Amino acid sequence: MAEFQTKYNIIDEKPPYNAPLKAQYKQGFAFYTMKERLPVILTQVIDQLSKDKEQIVEHFGEMAREELKHAIGEISKLKYELQTDKELKPITSSLGDEELWNTFLETLGEENTYYSSCWIYAETYMYRRLNNIFEQTATLKKLDYFQQQKHKTLTNSYGAISAVLQSIDVFNQNYSRNETELGAFFIKMLKLNLWGNRCDLSITAGQDVKLDGDPFSLLESLDSFLISDHTDVIWQCVKNSKDGEIDIINDNSGYELFTDLCLADFIIEHQLARKVNFNVKAIPWYISDVTPKDMQWTLDTLSAHENPLIAAFGKRLQMRFEAGSLDLKAVHNFWTSPMEFHRMQEFSPELYDDLTKSSLIIFKGDLNYRKLLGDFNFPYTTPFREALRGFEPTNLCTLRTVKADLICGIKEGLSEQLFAKDDRWMVTGEYGVIQFASK
Ligand code: F6P
Ligand code: MG
Q1: Average pLDDT value for residue range 333-360
Q2: What residues make up the domain containing 221?
Q3: Which single residue of 15, 131, 275, 401 could bond 28 by disulfide (Cβ 3.0 to 4.6 Å)?
């Protein structure tokens, strides 16, 4: 380790405040991610591909055999680059984001390696390069190397899914058109959605996530883990803009996507917006993030389920998509770019303009939170709006369980209390925030 530290300029300190997070700081989660988690993730992709070789060849044709072997070799090389702190080289791609990436990489100057660049740049780059390996092949362009794990997070959660649908049904059937009652249940739906973000696969380095029990009945007990709670203002915002559109910037597939769909369905059912848009990733991303294919598979799987409650929900969703009250927006490369959100207006003005038309944007999950803050280590009491650094396309909120060592908008003294209880509290996903900034 001492040799590693000297060779790659690792500093045995916590990341300083008011500076970008970097893997260079040994006492930060970025270091642990770069040194331990990401190599494990790449190794698991290799293992999975080797295990599934025959199935893949069967599906993609005999030519895929050689290409798969080559791809595995390329993933090993990528892992070596990461482990030896190499430069983030330009990419060659026909997915439409080559220029954005390469212009961006040029701006890094000397801080252009895995440990010296800002954490979000390096981690995002790894996932982009991983996909690039498959993009370069003739037969495996469409292979989603995370697909199996993603599918399992839905199929492992049917007990919880059915319990959630039952509770929503009970509310819908007994609802007496009282706004306070609706507001209270909407807030529950937000919380249900927040805690659904505990189930991502990148934090468990791809290990299965299983959900047992009735998530609604757990909500109250989870309230003490909700350390910044703007749910009331979000409800005010939603109830005052009922004829607008709401955009969800999705995070993970599986149970979390199910909760996104529940929230969207509830919004449409109670006419809290005219339309809800989903914004998903163009390529396999941070293991469990939703791609258009995952969305389609989820809708098909729910609709064809043997449990009538789940099947009815799936069919209702499909109907709403057909009617246009739910919409899967065309994928945008910005969501899989390294850019912090405060640079969206400069780098993807058309996406920014499109989002300004929304009456509320709901950013899901830890990675989106990191991008909202730009992986910048703000003092933890910095107001949410200030941490957005001018990114204010419209009203926006974040539902995020805390899995990375950055946060803003929490009460003075709270982080000290939480560190005294558990010095890993920022990376366990146990705590959550629901924060809002108005236009
Ligand atoms: O910090 C842990 C981590 O795996 C990060 O790499 C990433 O920001 C995040 O969790 C992924 O979580 P989510 O799916 O909530 O964005
Ligand atoms: Mg994710």
Answers
A1: 97
A2: 147-437
A3: 15
